[in-house]
């Protein structure tokens, strides 16, 4: 009987303990669920706030766009032309170009075909003068510098100055060494050759150039192009050298002595040249010319002009060729 009572009391205690545990755990789960619900509600509130912010931003953007569009419309209205009309006109022109009219095609077929190249503006500098140097004359020991000035589109005046100092040394060696120097002996009235040492002097040359193609359309005017020019020249040359003469001494005897020789030569020349001058790099010029002269040379201590001289000699008299090349700067 006691065991039965003990068992019943034990079972009853266990049931009480279990029921109390079930109540405690059930209360805990309800509290947790309520906390989770609160958290979810807070998240929902934050999401709603973000949604309200986005909606406000979306509402503000159209207002900014309207303001900018109004500014653009005001700028377009302030223009002097209507862009729509300009676009319309351009479209009409494009349609006319793409679809030519029949009458225009027929007119074009009846007319002769002419090829016209588009005119391209080209900068052509205008020069009125040129300063030229003749390097060929440097081989003769002569420095020749000329100045050309235009008078009209087809005429120009050219003046040149010469300074000569030639010896058998330097670049004038070949020219000087091939000269045949001879002086008239007053006693025998015959020419005697002597040894030349130096030639010095100066001269002037004048030309009136006529540019032949200046009056033709599209041709270059003075001072460029093909030209013909009459010219006159004058030179004064002094020649110094030495000669061997058989001289009588005070004792009555004779011996050979070296005596100095000095001659003064006047040269006159006139003729015609034909040349062509072309510009180079819009700053320089090259002049190539050739022609002929009638040259008359005479010594001051002799009558008349020289005869039977080689044309290469500086004291030659007769018809002589003229040719050369000059380079210079344009002004």
Distance between the termini: 152 Å
Give the helix level as a range of percent. 25-40%
The global form is: elongated
CATH level 1 name of the largest domain: Mainly Beta
Description:
This protein has 331 residues and is an alpha+beta fold. It has two domains: 1-112; 129-330, Porin (Beta Barrel), CATH 2.40.160. The chain contains four helices and ten strands. It has helices at residues 2-78, 83-98, 102-110, 173-177, and strands at 129-133, 142-152, 155-166, 182-185, 190-193, 195-211, 225-248, 254-280, 284-299, 318-330. Strands 1-2-3-6-7-8-9-10 form an eight-stranded antiparallel barrel. A two-stranded antiparallel ribbon has the order 4-5. The mean pLDDT is 81.
Which terms would index this structure?
331 residues, alpha+beta, Porin, eight-stranded antiparallel beta barrel, elongated
Quick recap of the structure?
This protein has helices spanning 2-78, 83-98, 102-110, 173-177, and strands spanning 129-133, 142-152, 155-166, 182-185, 190-193, 195-211, 225-248, 254-280, 284-299, 318-330.
List the helices and strands and how they pair.
Layout (H helix, E strand, L loop, with lengths): L1 H77 L4 H16 L3 H9 L18 E5 L8 E11 L2 E12 L6 H5 L4 E4 L4 E4 L1 E17 L13 E24 L5 E27 L3 E16 L18 E13 L1
Antiparallel strand pairs: 1-2, 1-10, 2-3, 3-6, 4-5, 6-7, 7-8, 8-9, 9-10
